[in-house]
Amino acid sequence: MLNRRTLLKVAASAPVLCGNSALAAPPGPNLQQRLCLFTDHLDDSGYTFDEVARMIKQLGISGPDLTVRSGGLVAPEKVSEDLPRAVKACRDQGLTVPMISTNLRSATDNAAETLRLAGKLGIHYYKLGYYEYEDASRWPERLEAVRRELKPLLKLGEEAGMTAGIHNHSGATVGGAMWDSWELLQPLDPKWVGVYFDPSHATIEGGNHGWKLGFHRVSPRLKMVALKDFIWEKSGGQWRTRWVPLGEGMVRWPEFLQLLARVPFPGPVSLHIEYDPGGANKADRFEKSFLAADRDLTFIRGQLKAAGLAG
Questions:
Q1: How far apart are CA 248 and CA 198, in angstroms?
Q2: Residues contacting 86, CB < 8 A, separation 6+
């Protein structure tokens, strides 16, 4: 597990936000106060809610971007029992839960229960699931079909005080091109749904300059931001993406954050550890996961300060 010297060093250098301060903070330039940790890389390691909360406390950030989906820290079929437990574990450590990441795509299954309960627990943002393209040539029909699915779900979110974010995931997903998410969102209430912007996936699809044009297009609907980094590498005769620590990949962080500084948005900034932090056993993985997050947070805090986004 983490040694005492490491924990004390981190705790001293990164003060923890307590209570509901992250949620209460108005949209402003200090994005450091809205940093949270996506828990996806912790889902399969058998950690308790208390263990995850203690790790996040030592990182000095607002709380988790909590996975509430199949295979996540909170399983959808156990949301009524486990989501309050997860939130309590965080609050016991002086943290908030700024957002949840879900696979919700329509007002079916447990959508109403999940959103209603999350809203009651003081969570205000959720990531939507993904909508796939089967035939790219029929994109107008696909966007209209997605709108029909979304509208009842967004109504549930409105009733719960929950704002949805569509993630610009690369590949054959609605939103990956970014112009399509703009088209999709036009008739939908901007208070309750917007863009969950990811500069890494935007760079994968947008290359040298397209990511920037895409950001400008969707920025009026910006709600949340995801942070990760990648490289292209050739494997098996094909070019593929590989996730790497922040600053070791192809995302142009200074350029992106200079753009972000001009766009006020209300929601969380979620750090994603998409690369494998390693670890031979549960305790070893816990420490390596902490160190990976601490390394990436050190990098992004420096970048935020340089961009005037750290207060």
A1: 16
A2: 49, 52, 64, 66, 73, 74, 97
Task: Give the SS3 label for residue 40.
Answer: helix
- Residue 126's DSSP bridge partners are 100, 164
Phi, psi of 235 (to 5 degrees): -140, 125
Helices (H) and strands (E) in the chain, counts: 11, 10
Contacting residues for 16 by C-beta, under 8 A, at least 6 apart: 57, 60, 61, 93, 94, 95
Q: Give the pLDDT confidence of 83-99 residue by residue, as tens digits.
A: 999 999 999 999 999 99
Q: What is the pLDDT of residues 284-305, one digit of tens each?
A: 999 999 999 999 999 999 999 9
Q: How far, in Å, CA of 154 to CA of 168, rounded?
A: 18
- Concatenated DSSP letters for 154-222? HHHHHHHT-EEEEE--SSSBTTTTSHHHHHHHTTS-TTTEEEEE-HHHHHHHHTTTHHHHHHHHHGGGE
* Domains of the chain by residue range: 4-306
Cα separation, 276 vs 169, whole angstroms: 19
Phi, psi of 64 (to 5 degrees): -95, 150
Provide CATH code, domain 4-306.
3.20.20.150
